[in-house]
Amino acid sequence: MQFKKFTFIYFMFVILAVGTLFTAFSSNPPNGRTGAPGDGLCTDCHSPGNPLGLDGEFSLSGFPAVINPGETYSISVVVRNNNGMAQRNGFQAVVLNEANNNIGDLTTSGGNPTTETDGNGREYVEHRPAIDFANNEVNWTFDWTAPENNIGEEVTLYVGSIVGSGTAGNSQDLFIQDNFSATIQEVTSTDDLEGMAKIDVFPNPASQFFTLKLDGPANEKVNIRLMNVTGQMVYAQMDLPLRSTTEIPVADLPRGMYFLEIKGATASTTRRIIVAE
Hints:
The protein is mainly beta and 277 residues long. The protein folds into two domains: 9-184, Immunoglobulin-like, CATH 2.60.40; 191-275, Immunoglobulin-like (Sandwich), CATH 2.60.40. It is 12% helix and 44% strand. The strands form four sheets. Strands 2, 4, 6, 7, 8, 10 and 11 form a seven-stranded mixed sheet that branches. Strands 1-3-9-5 form a four-stranded antiparallel sheet, with no helix packed on it. Strand 12 (198-202) and strand 13 (209-215) form a beta hairpin. The radius of gyration is 23 Å and the shape is globular. The model is unreliable at 1-24 (pLDDT under 50).
């Protein structure tokens, strides 16, 4: 009888401990679970396998294709659970250089998400606490300020996230992760190009197409490239007259932020484009 009583007490202690641990991770995740080099994964604590068939995906905006030294970027990470089976979401992110060391500075404007630096100098931005899905989405926003130098260095943002079932502790969740890279480049003067031509981009945001109107010397040419936030080119046109009007289609592009680079022989400029529904 005493053995059965001891077994029951031990079993209840284990259940209580697991529940406490899950609650603690939901409120304040351990550092180093982004999947970045040297980090672990959220599945170090959350059982892998996704037995309930939850789904999840990232959409990121604000992380630039080209990083200007010293500039602050407002970054948004939207996590979607399209099949509506999940209850809550938590995330963690870190920004590293080519040597996998912390680079730049992460900041937040409120209490959730928040930032925390571990003993190795890595600064993380993370949920505190996890948030329930609303219309199958959770949106996390934070700022990252690039260093003043480090020209030519590649920077990578690593993001790990738990799409949580809200049941059975941490044994029925889905872990998703992704990373996004860009290079720090010298800021080139745009005064010559802006002085040579009037540049209009409209409408912005755009859903079907946007118009690029250039009003400058007709004998000058520019190349244009439209890039997503990861630096992938999604549209390009070469030798465009500096006096021209061009419609650029965006209906088939995912919604989010893009960068339109307009580059002449001696100068260039970049405009941010928002593709909306």
